[in-house]
Write a structure and sequence with these properties.
The structure holds three protein chains of three kinds. Chain A is mainly α. Chain A has helices spanning 19-23, 28-56, 67-102, 111-133, 147-151, 156-183, 196-228, 241-275, 282-295, 311-339, 348-371, 373-379, 383-413, 419-445, 460-490, 535-538. Chain C has a single domain (52-145, 152-227), classed as Four Helix Bundle (Hemerythrin (Met), subunit A) (Up-down Bundle). Chain C is built from six helices and no strands. Classes of the chains: A mainly alpha, B mainly alpha, C mainly alpha.
């Protein structure tokens, strides 16, 4: 392994200059950076709404904002974080950048469609931001009918159209990934030699392809019903609001796996690289991604346990929901077994990976509480739910995203970042996160309902803890932003493989040339081979 | 690649004829009272027609196994949506005093 | 090989020595076969999303028809099945001409032949939309459009209004797909006129054809589900 101390003369960053060379690029790496910037912007906006929420909840009374405003705050927080940050974050940024390289291709199968998907994303974002700026939406990110179609007098149509449009961006990304994995793999790169990151993105793409169209048609119907008085979901027009919930969660539950599966892929990569071991049970981890994607489509009814869904359907959905725990547990056990007796180094990506495994486990296990029909009646629509899905989405998806961003930052930019600060930030995020959301499990179990600006005074201590944690968490997110920007100019050069990690992406220069590979690589064994001799014995 | 197959022109006309006959049959069947069978017949003919279009006009018959899987998964997921949603609607009211 | 599994070799992706590239080959593909396979697979995957896109509407249809079968029958009876059947035939004919257009490109037929079949496909698409417009006008005239002006004389006004909500949503979405399809056909016809397609390169025609046939299939289901459940034998 030769060490490179100077940046390659010609790479994807300096091969062309000017705004047009970015806005009209078809290079998946540049599009990934376009996504990185826009996704970060939406994260900041969504985070701003979160801070407003936490500020309001410091005291039991509605004294910081009016309840009406509060409704809009949590709705905009949800809509922006779910549809404009969590869903595109890892796939459209890290996946876009790494997946073609990992399969040994020069680009995704459809570069122009890739660029189009970014423009669609931005357009959808503009619609939603317009809705936010002109007065906001107060339906909750779930747009439940008939409130959204008949009662709410906020900008539902505008926000709905934004979500509808953005859906196509995610469909096109998924389509591009699927075709790329099937058709663009380098010679010799068989399915079972693929990195687990690619497997998890393939599974994610399946959900994007099969689920997203259903949410698209559903929010479109809400907009049409609201605008033209077609009677689809409104009971006053003869409709059935529970049908809306079925259609909504047919996508939106699997969408949770769109958020978590890519983070699982990132974790699989990091755990191998920093434990210096092959993943324990490669095939199990690979297939568990597919299993999560497929079983994830069979469980949506657990969101409807108290909505008036039939008890028998509830039973079926409850049992099916428990099934998702199996592939999820397979992953957690296999990561743990990979770390076991590994040569573990505590670099910042590994800290995020550790954070991911622990927090995802808590998020996943509390999910089992919610899948049980009886217990769900007690904790439904309380802060217990809020805590549960933030453990999965923030503790899981965002930890994975940050871990992946740190792990591949040297590859993306060609430069390292200050490791000391990175460790400090990782720790801050972990502490801040737990302080924010663990009290919410307790306060939720004690009965504090979600989506209210006011609460009973005895819950205040937990809410103050939560708000304090949120400010620590915010600091933890701002630090990486600063040192990442700083690193672009001042940090030392990374060389092509600063971690000593394996995989096709670490064999090309950092930052990679526009074409990725000067000659198409020919693969003869699994791309992540940390200990060839032990593979048969362990895997 | 397998999609390179070029079918004889006659095949397209035969399929076309079958599709027109199918349409005629559906319309005719709707005129006769067969009870619940009307729906079954109507949907069976529609499925047959769709299958003809997919297999011959869209060349799936000569497509790769992957294409078959892709098409199959589309319809399979549709089935998941229909069956699990209907499992709710059809079992409502099985328990006294619940929503219908 | 314990270290470094990626080896440079002056071979292309299939292990064959390089041949001169086709002029329409984009840089990231190895050969035209890979490009064509990627495009057709991409279109099939897109059509799967379309199945589920329409699927949401069919789901609504299924639930509400299950809830009020008689109301749906009564409402369906008011639809003009002659126009419906005619439109079905029109779309089937357009599918035939589409298939023949693809075949013409595959066999490197003269550009006149290619343009002829593509033009016919577009023409029948427009005929379909014209008939749809006649039907929609009729619904407006008879106040069968859901909303404040909806008027129903039969036994089941509420389910009827729901049926027509679904009717307009489903046929409307289908019509939008037809309009997009005609637009795509216009581009493809123009490309064919410029003699773009031959047996080596016909993927755009083929992919456009897949889309066109899919839209036809949606109608194959919409026609009986909307027009023919009325129990015409009773009327």
């Amino acid at each position: 392994m030769d060490t490179i101390t100077t940046a390659p003369t010609l790479n994807y960053l300096n091969s062309a200059h000017g705004l047009a060379s970015w806005l009209l690029t078809r290079d998946h790496k540049r599009i990934a950076l376009l996504y990185l910037v826009s996704v970060t912007a939406f994260f900041a906006i969504g985070g701003f709404f979160a801070m407003m929420i936490r500020l309001e909840l410091v005291t039991p009374a509605a004294d910081f904002v009016q309840p009406d405003t509060y409704n809009k705050l949590f709705t905009m927080h949800g809509v922006i974080m779910v549809f404009f940050f969590l869903i595109p974050s890892i796939p459209a940024v890290l996946g876009n950048f790494m997946l073609p390289i990992m399969v040994g291709a020069k680009d995704l199968a459809f570069p122009r469609i890739n660029l189009l998907s970014w423009y669609i994303y931005v357009l959808g974002g503009l619609f939603t931001l317009t809705a936010a700026v002109t007065g906001g939406v107060d339906t909750g990110w779930t747009f439940y009918a008939p409130y959204s179609t008949a009662s709410s007098n906020s900008h539902v149509i505008m926000a709905g159209v934004g979500v509808f449009i953005t859906g196509f961006s995610s469909i096109l990304t998924g389509l591009n990934f699927i075709v790329t994995v099937h058709r663009m793999r380098a010679p010799g790169l068989t399915w079972f030699r693929l990195p687990l990151f690619v497997w998890s993105h393939y599974a994610t793409s399946l959900i994007m392809i099969l689920g997203t169209p259903v949410i698209a048609i559903t929010v479109l119907l809400v907009a049409v019903e609201r605008g033209l008085h077609l009677g689809i979901f409104d009971p006053a027009l003869g409709g059935d609001p529970i049908l809306f919930q079925h259609l909504f969660w047919f996508y939106s539950h699997p969408a949770v796996y769109i958020m978590i599966l890519p983070a699982m892929g990132v974790t699989s990569e990091i755990v191998q690289a920093f434990a210096r071991k092959n993943i324990f049970g490669y095939a199990f981890v690979a297939f568990s991604s597919l299993a999560i994607a497929i079983i994830g489509f069979l469980v949506w009814g657990h969101h409807l346990f108290v909505s008036g869904q039939s008890t028998y359907a509830g039973l079926i959905f409850s049992i099916l929901s428990f099934l998702v725990a199996i592939p999820s547990a397979v992953k957690v056990f296999n990561w743990t077994a990979t770390i076991y007796k590994g040569a573990v180094s505590w670099d910042s990506p590994m800290l995020y990976a550790f954070g991911f495994v622990g927090l995802f486990t808590i998020g996943g296990l509390t999910g089992l509480f919610l899948a049980s029909m009886g217990l769900d009646v007690h904790v439904h629509d309380t802060y217990f739910i809020i805590a549960h899905f933030h453990y999965v989405m923030v503790g899981g998806a965002i930890m994975g995203y940050l871990g992946g961003l740190h792990y591949w930052w040297p590859k993306i930019t060609g430069r390292m970042y200050p490791e000391g600060w990175a460790k400090f930030a990782a720790l801050t995020v972990f502490v801040g996160f737990n302080l924010t959301f663990f009290p919410q499990f307790i306060v939720g179990y004690l009965g504090m309902p979600r989506r209210y600006a006011m609460y009973a005074p005895e819950f205040q201590v937990y809410n103050v803890m939560s708000s304090a944690g949120a400010s620590i968490l915010a600091v933890g997110y701002v630090i990486p932003l600063i040192y990442f920007i700083w690193s672009l100019k001042y940090a030392p050069l990374a060389g092509k493989d600063p971690w000593g990690a394996k995989g096709l992406e670490w064999e090309i220069p950092s930052p990679p040339p526009t074409e990725n590979f000067a000659v198409t690589p020919i693969v003869t064994e699994r791309t992540h081979q940390y200990a060839p001799s032990r593979e048969v014995g362990i895997a | 690649m397998t999609e390179h197959h070029i079918a004889p022109r006659g095949m397209y006309y035969v399929v076309f004829l079958a599709l027109i006959i199918g349409t005629g049959l559906t319309v005719a069947a709707a005129e006769v009272d067969l009870g619940a069978l009307n729906n079954v017949l109507m949907l069976a003919i529609a499925c047959a027609k769709a299958l003809l279009v997919i297999l011959f006009f869209m060349h799936l018959r000569w497509g790769t196994r992957l294409t078959w899987v892709v098409v199959g998964s589309g319809f399979f997921w549709l089935l998941i949506m229909f069956s699990l949603t209907m499992s709710d609607y059809m079992s409502r009211g099985w328990v006294e005093g619940t929503l219908r | 090989m314990p270290d470094g599994h990626a080896h440079a070799a002056p071979l292309d992706a299939h292990g064959h020595p390089h041949e001169p590239a086709h002029p329409k080959l984009q840089h990231h593909f190895d050969d035209m076969g890979q490009r064509a396979e990627a495009s057709t697979l991409g279109m099939w995957v897109f059509l799967v999303t379309e199945i589920l896109f329409f699927g949401g509407l069919f789901m609504c249809y299924l639930v509400y028809r299950w809830k009020s079968p008689s109301g749906f029958q009564e409402a369906s009876f008011e639809l003009n099945r002659v126009w419906g059947a005619t439109n079905t035939a029109v779309l089937i004919i357009s599918s035939l001409t589409m298939a023949l257009a693809v075949r013409a490109a595959q066999t490197s037929a003269k550009r006149g032949t290619q343009v002829f079949f593509l033009g016919l496909t577009m023409f029948f698409g427009l005929v379909f939309l014209g008939i749809k417009a006649i039907e929609y006008t009729d619904k407006f005239v008879h106040h069968h459009v859901p909303g404040p002006h909806f008027h129903w004389d039969g036994q089941y006004p509420k389910p009827a209004e729901q049926f027509y909500s679904l009717y307009f949503a489903m046929t409307g979405l289908h019509a939008v797909h037809m309009i997009v399809g005609v637009g795509i056909m216009a581009v493809i016809t123009w490309m064919a006129w410029r003699e773009t397609f031959d047996e080596d390169y016909y993927t755009p025609v083929e992919v456009a054809g897949l889309y066109w046939h899919f839209v036809d299939i949606v109608w194959i289901f919409l026609f009986p589900l909307l027009y023919l459940i009325g129990g015409h034998f009773k009327g």
